[in-house]
Design brief:
390 residues, Aspartate Aminotransferase, domain 1, Aspartate Aminotransferase, domain 2, 2 domains, binds (2S)-2-hydroxybutanedioic acid
């Protein structure tokens, strides 16, 4: 049986975690995998999460099974943060808890694979390297459309629209709700309007990956395009992650919402989500979602979470602005948003920076801006200066 299997390369991004750990140089800088870091370079458990976990330890009476939908109250309390309170109550919208944003993407992909018309999933170039494998492993055809042009460091919107014009009715378009990973580049308001018009006219289904809400422009601003999309189209899918904005990475906390054309179809969608979740993971892990529920059920804890998230967001935005000021060739970073930026560096340059300076970033030149510190920016800019291609 296993004789047919071939060796597989390790995930390039996750491999960086181990490489960085093994590097003994004290001045090493980790700009690899997307986790928030404070100015001491740490990723602490958020204060509100700690408080919620203490509360859970004291009061949780059972760990008996829930169900494939996970913690329903968690989903109910999270929905207004994502969609606003009016839209969250839309009977055409149904949501379940998932193991992280990846679980949400996979569950959504499996649902798409059960849908009508063998849709193709359209994915921008570049995107998070795990997007295409998630859809392909669910048996779906994946096609790329241009998004960010590394040669100019800007979004090639005309090429994106021209490619999506080739999509057939019912195809699915994967969109980053905010904080584009890996580029940080953002469509303008006018471009979003044009894109929504195209999706509506050609009856394409948006599949929004919203993994960084609150880490770009703010909780509401980061959800604005997701809300506008849901307003405009009859069917949509939203994969959500709490891993970054609640700092719950390894606890794997996410949710999937699907909007169907009417509430009868929503019931069928939900039935299918539950059947799929049951066969994929039976039910999602409880702990992280229960901690989020504790926070969102308590006004004081919720306010504390929002304050800390805002501290994180402002720190990232400040570093982004500092970086843009320190190196004129990176000025465009100031107009982008979120944790990531894709620097114009060749793969060879990325490897040289790793070997010569202990600077760890993704092979694509993507950096996690939160890995920088005020005191390391000048050294970082000096190290990359000779390698920048624009
Ligand atoms: C990232 O892009 O660094 C994060 O989303 C972590 C991951 O799972 O790849």
């Amino acid at each position: 049986l296993f004789g047919a299997l071939e060796r597989q390369p390790a995930d390039a991004l996750l491999r960086l975690i181990g490489l960085y750990r093994q590097d003994q140089r004290p001045h090493k800088i980790d700009l690899g995998v997307g986790v928030y870091r404070n100015d001491a370079g740490e990723t602490p458990v958020m204060r509100a999460i700690k408080a919620a976990e203490h509360r859970l330890a004291d009061t949780q009476a059972t760990k008996a099974y829930l169900g494939p939908e996970g913690d329903e109250r968690f989903v109910e309390l999270l929905a207004p943060i994502v969609f606003g309170s009016v839209k969250a109550a839309d009977p055409c919208l149904t949501g379940v808890q998932t193991p992280g944003g990846t679980g949400a993407l996979r569950l959504g992909a499996e649902l798409v694979a059960r849908g009508a018309g063998r849709p193709t999933v359209w994915i921008g170039t570049p995107t998070w390297p795990n997007h295409a494998p998630i859809f392909r492993e669910a048996g779906l055809a994946v096609r790329s459309h241009p998004f960010f042009d590394p040669a100019t460091g800007t979004i090639d919107f005309a090429a994106m629209i021209a490619a999506l014009d080739q999509a057939k009715v019912g195809d699915v378009v994967l969109l980053h709700g905010c904080c584009h990973n890996p580029t940080g580049a953002e469509l303008t308001q006018a471009q979003w309007t044009d894109l929504i018009t195209l999706l509506t006219e050609r009856r394409l289904i948006p599949f929004v990956d919203l993994a960084y809400q609150g880490l770009g422009r703010g909780l509401d601003a980061d959800a604005a395009t997701t809300r506008a999309l849901l307003e405009a189209v009859p069917e949509a899918i939203v994969a959500y992650s709490c891993d970054k904005n609640f700092g719950l990475y390894r606890d794997r906390v996410g949710a999937l919402w699907v909007k169907a054309a009417d509430d009868g179809r929503t019931a069928a969608v939900r039935d299918n989500l539950l059947v799929l979740a049951r066969s994929l993971w039976s039910m999602p892990p409880d702990h992280g979602a229960a901690a989020v529920r504790e926070i969102l059920e308590d006004g004081v804890l919720e306010a504390a979470w929002k304050d800390e998230l805002e501290e994180m967001r402002t720190r990232i935005a400040g570093l982004r602005a500092e970086l843009a000021r320190a190196e004129p060739r990176l000025a465009a970073l100031a107009d982008q948003g979120g944790m990531f930026a894709m620097l114009p560096l060749s793969r060879e340059a990325v490897l040289a920076l790793r070997t010569d300076h202990g600077i760890y970033m993704a092979d694509s030149g993507r950096i996690n801006i939160a890995g920088l510190r005020s005191e390391t920016i000048a050294g970082f800019v000096a190290a990359i200066a000779a390698h920048l291609q624009r």
